[in-house]
Amino acid sequence: MSAIPKTAPADHAPASPIQIRPLPGPLGAEVLGLDLSLPLSDADFRRIHRAHLDHHVLIFRDQRITPQQQVDFSRRFGPLQIHVLRNFQLPGHPEVLVVSNIKENGQPIGLGDAGAFWHSDLSYKEKPSMGSLLHAQELPADGGDTLFANQHAAYEGLPQALKRALDGKRAEHSYLAKYEELRARSPWRPPLTQKQIEEVRPVVHPVVRTHPETGRKALFVNEHFTTRILGIPEDESRDLLAELFKLSVQPQYLYTHVWQPGDMVFWDNRSVMHLAGGTPDHLRRKLYRTTIEGDIPF
Ligand code: SIN
After folding, report:
1. Is 136's C-beta closer than 6 angstroms to any atom of ligand 1?
2. pLDDT by residue (tens digit) across 242-258?
3. Dihedral of the CA atoms 206, 207, 208, 212 (nearest 10)?
4. Which residue out of 55, 119, 135, 209 is catalytically annotated?
5. What is the pLDDT of residues 200-235, one digit of tens each?
6. What's the CA gap between 126 and 226, in Å, rounded?
7. What's the CA-to-centroid distance between 132 and ligand 1, angstroms?
8. Is 121 assigned a catalytic role?
9. Verdict on whether the full-model pTM lies above 0.85
């Protein structure tokens, strides 16, 4: 019997304690044994990157990290984006958007209706977000869940005739699509300046995008920002979008994240859409969000 070598092969870093534990549903995995307050080794970065591509949503439990550590970790995956609503930046950290229903001295401290409609983050930009990270700061005793829908599965589940009909189609995305509707019912949406409106000019993306790293196709239209499908009559576009919105969030494609203290959730906007499930008005909820710039969808 040959002896088991006592030393690790020369090119291997010491065995990592990270465990990737896939969730039973259509997406998601828990990442255990990683402290995001510490520098991330290249070997661990590669494992996280691979797991992110494989599972689309990663949940890092029990992270006691500062906003700067969230920014540093997020930056390992690409340049960060700054949200057009500057009033909800975390002071000193323009890359961190405060997502919260809390008011202090009568003023909202964060964007309380972020995620009110299904969406993929910043799909209204020429380069939408590759990934987003939300870190729990303060959680309600009830509600406050975040839902995710697997858009590879949604595409694969479409009838063949519909897949063919979508082939080569492009759709417009606009930050302003639901802005006035949200403004009418919430205290979180200030009137936009001309400069802000120019920053979020409508863009056009394929209705079905190809994931640039895995090559998998995904549906890429969402009820928050997608306004119309180009090249077909207005009423057909409206009906087709309504059908796609319904088909893309069927129960078999969904994972509902029930937040635990210290959770950091990192999702792939090229593979999933998400929705804030809602928080009762009298309960406080606060999370910090960073978004990583992606590439131009194709
Ligand atoms: C978001 O859409 O980024 C926020 C989601 C949430 O608050 O659950």
Report:
1. no
2. 999 999 999 999 999 99
3. 40
4. 119
5. 999 999 999 999 999 999 999 999 999 999 999 999
6. 13
7. 10
8. yes
9. yes
Give residue for tokens 């599972």.
Answer: 55
Residue corresponding to tokens 């010491």:
14
Nearest to 269 by CA among 135, 97, 172, 152: 152
Averaged pLDDT score across all residues of the chain: 94
* CB 83 within 8 Å of CB 95: no
Q: Which residue has the tokens 């977000």?
A: 129
Centre of ligand 1 from the C-alpha of residue 99, in Å: 7
273 CB near ligand 1 (under 6 Å): no
Q: Tokens 């890092």 — which residue? A: 60
In angstroms, the CA 108 to CA 186 distance is 10
Per-domain boundaries in the chain: 19-293
DSSP letter at 185 equals H
Looking only at the bridges linking them, the beta strands covering 254-257 and 146-150 are antiparallel
SS3 209: strand
Does ligand 1 have an atom closer than 6 angstroms to the CB of 146?
A: yes
Instruction: Provide the residue type at 155 as one letter.
Output: Y
DSSP string, 101-130: --EETTEESS-TTTTSS-B-TTTTSSS-EE
- Percentage of the residues of the chain whose pLDDT score is greater than 70: 95
Contact 287, 162 (CB under 8 A): no
Residue 9, pLDDT above cutoff 60: no
276 C-alpha to center of ligand 1: Å? Answer: 5
pLDDT band for position 10 (cuts 50, 70, 90): very low
Q: What dotted CATH number matches 19-293?
A: 3.60.130.10
